[in-house]
C-alpha cells in the first residue's frame, strides 16, 4: 500500500501512560531520533511525585511532550497534535489539553471495564461518541506486541512491557524518524540480557511495520531539518547541562571541584551526574542533610576547591545560615536551587519560580549574594560557568536559580568549543600583603573587585583566623566597633554591586514597540514564542530577559523607562515585579501563574495583545 | 596524614596575637595552654594545622591559635571540617566544640563525621552547660538540673557523649580533664596519631554557670577514688591504694566495679583499647554513676578503619589514573559524548 506523505513545519506529540509504562524513555528515544534528523526540538516531561502511584489511576499518569519543527522553536508547545494514550487514565488526564482534530492513538487493550471504572468513565469513551471531534486510532498495543514476540524467549510480562517500543516504532514510522540510535540504545540498555535486546527491537519493528501496512494510518509525515547554525549538537536537559557546566568550570579554573548535596527532587540528577566524573578531580559527597552539604562545600572552598552545593527550595531554606557565613567569610561558593512548586513539599515534580525572594532576601542580617538564572536547558551550562566565574573572582556565594522546567526539559545544544570558554583561573594569596611586608591582612581588598585574598591553609606565613563574628576592615580581627560594622555592611553590599555583568539586551525587531515584556529564568521560551506570534500578526512588542538578578545589569532602569508599559510574567505572585517596582519606580504589570506548569505561549500572547492594544 | 619534619616550634609559636577573652578562672584557659604546649610535638608546620569550631565559649578557641582557623556557625564545624579534610589530606584538621554545639544543634553532623571516620580530631569541651548564652542547661546537664531555663529542674535525660560516639561507630574515643595537663596531652597525643576521627571529651569547668561540676574528679581528697585511669595493657584498678577494680561478671552484659581484695587477679579486666567490638568501650563508658564515681579517663577505644579522606582520595586517584590527554581534551570528549549530530 502506498502512503501519502505530507510535509509539516512543526508537530507536538505527547506520550502519556502509567508511570510504569516507560513513557519518559519512549519520549526520550523519540526526541533523540528527532535530534538526529536535525529538527529543532523542545521537550517537557511531566511525571508524578510518587515512584509507583497505583497502576491505572489519574495520579499515576506520566507524560512526555516533544515539540519539533523545521525552524527554531522556543517551547515544548502548548497543545499536542498527537496524543499517545497507553490507558484510560492517560486519555482522561490529557484530553483537556488537546485541540479538536488532534490525533489520538490509544491502547485499546487497556480500555477494560475495570480500568475505565478506575478513572470514573461510566462509558467507554472510544465507543460513546465523546471523542468524535478527534482522529482516534484504536490500536491493540499490548496484544499486538505480545503477538509479535510470541516466538521470542521472553516472559509474558517482559513482552507486555515492550509495548512502549511498539508505540515508538509506530510513531517513528508516522514521522519518518531515523531509528538507528534507538537500536543502539536498546543494545546498550539491555546488554546484560540479549533476549530483551532482540525482543524490544522486534517490538519496535512490529510497530513500524504496523504503520506501514494498516489502513488506519494513511498518511506519513515529514518535518524537514531546521536551519540551525553549523556545528555539532546534542540534545540536553537542564540538569545535565548544569552538571557539565560545573565540570567545565573546574577544568577552566584548574581547581578541584567539591559538590556537597543531599538528595532532593528535582536537583538530585546533578549529584548523580557529577558523581560519575571523578577523573576531572570532582569529589561528590552525599551529606547527612542540606546544612552539612553546604558546610562541607564551604569547608572545601576554604581549602581551595571550587565549592558547590545543589538542592531545591526546601534545601536552600536550610542552607540560609551557612550562606550568610559564606557572605561574612567572603569565600567563593555556588548554591544551585532547582526550584519546584512550594511552599513546604508543595508539588515536588512541578515547576515554579517562587524562590526568587528567598535567593535575594532570605537570610539574616544584610547578607547580599549574587543571583543568576538560566533561561533554557542548554543555557544551564553557561549559567553554571558564569556562577563559578562570579564566585571565584568576587569570593562570594552565588545562587543559581534553575527550575524543574529547564532542569528536566531538553533542547538541542550547539556544543561549545572548549577553548572559547572563559578562563576562570584565580590566584591564591602566597605573600604577606601588609605595608610592613610581613603581616597578612585577610580583609585587605582588591580595589577593583573589592574581593579579599583567598589564602588557603597550607600557605606558610599567612596563618590567620576567619569567622562569622564581625571583622575589622583589613585585619579581619574581631570588631564590635559601630563605624566599622557600618563600613563592612556597606562594603559587602558594594562588593556585589561591583560585579561586572553584561547589559540587558532588548529584542525589538520592529523598533517601535511601546510595550516591553521582562522575564527571568525559564519563562524565556514561552515569552519569546508569544512575542514572535504577536509580531507575526503585525503587533510590535519588545522582549528583555534578566539573567543576572543580583546585581542587575546597570542599564535596566534606562531600558524600562524607554517603554510605555512593562509586563512581567512570572510563575510566582510577582516577586521580580515587586523588586522592579521598588527599585526603579516603574509601574510594571505583573502577570502571574502558579499552576506547577510553564506558561503556554498562547496565554501569554492573549495577555500581551491586550496590553499592547491598551498601551 | 602530614609528614612529620624536624621543626623547632614552641608553645609560643602557637599563641596568636588576640587577647584571650574567657572569664577569669574558666577551664578553657587550661585547655588552651595544654594544646598550645602540645602542638610543637606534632612536628607539623603551623600552616598545615587548621582549627575549626562552632559557636560557644569553647568555640572561640581558633582565634587564639596561631594556625589557620575558622570560627564557623553553631553546630556545623564537623560538616565544614569534613569538606576541608576530605579535599586537603595534607592538613591536620582539629574541631573544637562544646556540649551544646556538638550534641544539641550539631548532633547530626557529629555522628555522621564519626561514622564516616573523617580524619578529624574532635575536642568536645564538656562543661555540662550553655556558657556563651549565659547558663541554660545542655544535653549533658543532669536530669533535674536547675538553670535559667529550667527553674523547676530539667526534665531531659542527658547524653553520655562517649556512649553516643561509640554508637556512631567512632574509631577513637577518649576522655580527659581540663585541669590535668599531663593527662590531657597524653590523650591528645594518641588522638593525633590516630588515622580517622578521634573523639575526645574534655571535662571543662565553667566557673560562672556550672562551677565545680567536676570537683570530685579534681579534688586531691576524692579524685583517686573517683577516677579510673585507663592504661592500655594494664589491669583496670583504681583508688588511693588500688582498692577498686573493674571486672566482667560472667553472664552480665557490662563491666562492674569491685573491691580488688574480693576478686582473684585474673578476673580483673586488662584494658585493651584495640578491642574490635565496641561493646567493651561502651561498657566502660557506662561505669560512672550520677555522682561521678567510677569515671574512666584515657583512651577507651582506638581501632583502625579506613578513613573517609583516604577512601575519597583513592577513588579520585583511581579515576584520574585512567585519564589520557589534557583536561580540556577530556572535557571536549565528554561534551560530545552520547548521540550527537552535525550540521554543516
Ligand atoms: C543558630 C544559633 N542558635 C543559637 C545560638 C546561640 N548559642 C550560641 S552558643 C550556644 C550554646 C553554647 O553551648 P556550648 O556548645 O555548650 O558551648 P559553651 O559556651 O558552653 O562552651 C547557643 C545556644 C547561635 N549562635 N546560633
Ligand atoms: S561562661 Fe563559663 S565557659 Fe564561658 S568563658 Fe565564662 S567560665 Fe568559661
Ligand atoms: Mg557547654
UniProtKB/TrEMBL annotation, chain A:
Taxonomic superkingdom: Bacteria
- Start and end residues of each Pyruvate/ketoisovalerate oxidoreductase catalytic domain: 20-207
GO MF annotations in UniProt:
magnesium ion binding; oxidoreductase activity, acting on the aldehyde or oxo group of donors
Concerning CDD domains, the annotation shows: TPP_PYR_PFOR_IOR-alpha_like
- Which keywords appear in this protein's UniProt record, sorted alphabetically? Oxidoreductase
Q: Which InterPro entries match?
A: 2-oxoacid/accept_OxRdtase_asu, Pyruvate:ferred/Flavod_OxRd, Pyrv/ketoisovalerate_OxRed_cat, Pyrv_Fd/Flavodoxin_OxRdtase_N, Pyrv_flavodox_OxRed_cen, THDP-binding, Transketo_C/PFOR_II
Report the source organism.
Answer: Phytohabitans flavus
Name of this protein: Oxidoreductase
A GO BP entry is:
response to oxidative stress
Ranges for domain Pyruvate flavodoxin/ferredoxin oxidoreductase pyrimidine binding: 257-474
From TrEMBL, chain B:
- Gene3D superfamilies in the record, alphabetically? 3.40.50.970
What UniProt keywords apply to this chain's record, in alphabetical order?
Answer: Oxidoreductase
Q: Which InterPro entries does this entry report, sorted A to Z?
A: 2-oxoacid:Fd_oxidoreductase, THDP-binding, TPP_enzyme_TPP-bd
An example Pfam family from this entry, by short name, is TPP_enzyme_C
One GO MF term: magnesium ion binding
**Keyword Amino-acid biosynthesis listed:** no
Report domain Thiamine pyrophosphate enzyme TPP-binding positions: 55-202
* GO aspect biological process, one term: cellular respiration
Q: What is this protein called?
A: 2-oxoglutarate ferredoxin oxidoreductase subunit beta
From which organism does this entry originate?
Phytohabitans flavus
